Amino acid sequence: MPDPEAQAPSTPPTTLILGLGNVLLTDEAVGAAVLKAMEPLLANRPEVALMDGGTLGFALAGPIGDAARLVVVDAARMGQPAGTVRVLEDAAMDTQLSRCANNVHEVSLADLFDIARLTDSLPARRALIGIEPERVAWGSELTPVVAAAVPRAVAAVEALLTRWGDAG
What we know:
Layout: E1 15-20, H1 30-38, E2 48-54, H2 61-66, E3 69-75, E4 85-89, H3 90-98, H4 106-118, E5 125-131, H5 144-147, H6 150-164
């Protein structure tokens, strides 16, 4: 007879929201700020996982490969006014990552995507929520224009989740 006290195996998250950035470099910390703002919104949503990826590393290949859907939130230089929030999905995201000097993590993120492709584990749906930084220098606070973009980035993530079928 099964033990009633035993917990049923939990279902792994199907969507990973990965915040990137260095929290010691002003607007570079926007990925972590968006994750923090999303925590209460996703508290009862086991199908969606939040992960602070910091400044990236090959250890993230596993969580990226395990996700069916991936949302990356990061400061991204896209030639737009500071605080601009852009959503790039699937092939558009891949194109952005292949460009030089647009994002301080792009080479490493592109490498992680290459690992996922080689192992046939690239998330079927993926998006980059890029926030144009105003300033990337030593400091622990976002600039006001980028701080004001955090709710727009959260709304962009929520819109993706709804469209992708992860609405709560």
